[in-house]
Amino acid sequence: MTYDQSRQPPPGYYQPPQAPPPKKRHILRNLSIGCGGLIGLIVIIAVIAAVAGGGKTASPPASPGTTAPGGSTAPAAATGPGIGSKARDGKFQFVVTSVGHRKSVGDTADGLGETAQGMFTVLHITVTNISNVAQTLDDSAQLVFDSRGRQFSADSVADIDANQGNGGGVFFNSINPGNSVQGVILFDLPAGDKAVTAQLHDSAFSGGVTVSLVSR
Q1: pLDDT for residue 70
Q2: What sign results for the dihedral spanned by CA atoms 67, 70, 72, 77?
Q3: Which domain holds residue 80?
């Protein structure tokens, strides 16, 4: 007799249990969990390293006279040519003939001069064009430094007053090849402070040459 499978099995008939379907593997979930654990381990290691490194001694700051504000290098006081010596940068040869100090320049009684906030350091200088083309001497490209490495720029307003009697001197003067000009460049330093070096440039973009202003 043929048995109809759509019908219920007769009493006493044994039917073996069916095997459960295989479980799906959650590959993406497992990978996510694994990556999360790895990232957590990296973070823990980084925190431990940061805490361990906190006790290290920091590198000491650069000593005065190494790097001045604005990125210019503050030269040491004893380096380079000194007062009365020739110093060359680009198209110019500089000679600082002397260094002076004064509180004001020009006719301050009539309000036409310039008075220093502190005290003017005055560089008496001769500049010669050693190239084959004309070059403009820019007083604002010249710098001095004190013993603490602080950088001071020229006071162009004071330079105009101080160089009126010498054809403009070193204030924004165009110098032809072979010619020389003489004049003064003034720097307003705090009262009692002294410039120990000058950094002289043939232009605002040149490397400059260091001149020691300290007697040797």
Answers
A1: 47
A2: negative
A3: 69-212
Total structural domains within the chain:
1
119 neighbors 99 (Cβ within 8 angstroms) = no
Residue 200 lies in a domain: yes
Say whether 29 sits in a helix, a strand or coil. Answer: helix
Say which CATH number the domain at 104 has. 2.60.40.1240
Task: Average the pLDDT over 183-190 and give the result.
Answer: 96
Give the C-alpha separation, 63 to 174, whole Å: 38
Q: Report if residue 13 sits inside a domain.
A: no
Of the pLDDT bands very low, low, confident and very high (cuts 50, 70, 90), residue 16 is low
Question: Rounded to whole angstroms, how far apart are CA atoms 73 and 151?
Answer: 9
pLDDT in tens, 109-139: 777 789 999 999 999 999 999 999 999 999 9
| Residue 86 counted as domain residue | yes
For the chain, the C-alpha Rg in angstroms (whole number) is: 40
3-state secondary structure of 8: coil
